[in-house]
Amino acid sequence: MKTGADLIIDTLYELGATEVFGYPGGTIMPVYDALFRSLERGVPVKHYLTRHEQGAGFAAVGFARATGKTGVCLATSGPGATNLITALADAKLDSVPVVAITGQVPRPLMGTNAFQEVDVFGLSVASCKHSFQVMDQAELEDTIRQAFFIANDGRPGPVLIDIPKDVQMNTVVKQSPLSLPKRPEFMTNSSQFEQARDLISQSKKPMFYIGGGVDIAGGTDKLRELLNLTQIPAVTTLKGIGAVPKSYPHGMGMLGMHGGAGANLAVQEADLLIALGARFDDRVTGKLASFAPNARVLHIDVDNSEINKLRQVELAINCDLSTALPLLLNELTGFGDLATEKWQPWREACAQLKVENAWRYDFPHDGIYAPKLLNQLSEKLPDTAVVTCDVGQHQMWVAQHMRFESSKNHLSSGGAGTMGFGLPAAIGAKVSRPNDQVIAVCGDGSIMMNIQELGTIKRFNLGVKVLLIDNAKLGMVKQWQELFFDKRLSETDLSDNPEFITLAKAFDIPGQTITQANEVEAALDEFIAHDGPYFLHIKIDANDNVWPLVPPGAANQDMIGQDQKVG
Amino acid sequence: MSTQEANAGLAHLSLICSQSSLLLERLLQTMRYRGFTVVNMNSTELSSHETEVNLLVKGQAKLTTLQKSLEALIEVQQCYLTEDQAKLATLIEMGLPSIYSPTQLSQPRTMAESA
Question: Could you report how far apart the first and last alpha carbons of chain A are, in Å?
Fold first, then answer.
């Protein structure tokens, strides 16, 4: 006879979740006991002990985002579970398939304010795609299978399974697993794609607007075929970065609040936006009423609630992009002549905008200019390298100045904008892709939110590289205070940061600090070549800000600082 | 104030859902998050697996986004929206009964039949 906890591990193993992240505690102990015995029972599930439940949650997110597989995290009840919530909310906003298993107090104690009892099931309502509370051990296996299905079905998202301790401990007979519903066929019809073709062919200034949904749907290859066929200019969202290949001559880069000026200006000129897996987020559109004012919109998205939510579209196709893109591609076959002739003036106009607004790296001070450093780093890395980010100025610099061949290689907390994301997400990415270079680009504010995960890196000797961009400030908040709060720098000074290299060495992770531009080249070479974890601490001038910037409430063409690209 | 004015911004939603202990919490959270308040609601168990939930909601946000968000929930099998003011007035007069026959869930009755 197995216990419920054994069945949990068996089911995870059968579902291919052989690497999980977590932190033990009172009400999840039976599961940890089953984990301990999983190897001898022939169902080996490797557990990565993080130093905080939030770290486990973000590691699961990083694992999932770097591979497309389902990330799994475990925590105990009460504070263990609440510590997971931020990571789950992050996963929901960025559509990441994660299954979180939390312990709960035994059923007889539920509802009594028992020790470490929190209604995590209730808490999860707003932060998860779906939640379960398993009150009968006979339902464990089916519930876990359903959770994996739901996490990946349609628009992916996190699913929480709350399991009382006594349910984990009770014996259970394995039953035939539930047959899960088939994924519904999307109700696409050829007339929709004919209309799409007509919209595109009527357009004189079409623009692809690529979101994270393309990669999530596994549509990157088909997108690239579409780009090659049509040669239509393309912009990406933060999460769409990597979907458009570096080599694509008409890639305009990221649009939006900190997008490139060329990308933003081109979108404002476009007469058709072909929005693929994107959701017209406020960080993308700026003042919504002024966003792409001349454009009709063709919107293809798996989530029907995203269509017409913010921008009224001319044609909506509610469909998984893995289904839609081949159909669209098929419909556009024969566009070759159109591609070479009709849109050439538009392509040239976009190219001109790119040239006029190209990034510059000739910053006139002796210090280290982070955009230039990140651009250098990008040039040195192989296309397979994964870069995770925290949130703030450095995150935007990564998006602007590093280039990626896959959205799975650029892991940035987009929707939630969660500081502290980068380090644990890099752990998950490295676990899932051990042969690829994984680099966490962190800010000095963000890294302190999950600095304890250096301990996890060391424990498992994960070759995660940390590149810390340190301006001794909460830089993005400071930048906004300078611009929009009359330079009242309220609570953004971090000049009392710890000595980061001493801290890294306390975790037995080697590293160095650099402060001058002439140190960058050698330091990056050593950073990349080092075998094992490494911590590169880069001190930059706190006056360096992120440009351009679309002020809150302004239209994208009214960005400021596009003439200050050098600082 | 006319009945039409009093009902401005109101809409009626009739949902057929699978049973779940979290169902009502999730429905109400979705209403609130999408910018609506619930003016009236009732829930009827149709079978051991199905529940019908009727809601009268008020708000200025996009009803279509609310409807699509509800349809995206795992438990929600069908979601019918009525925002026509005349139909709403009738529904409110009737005390918000279901406008759909539980025995013919896939074929909503017309308002005339319902009345």
Answer: 67
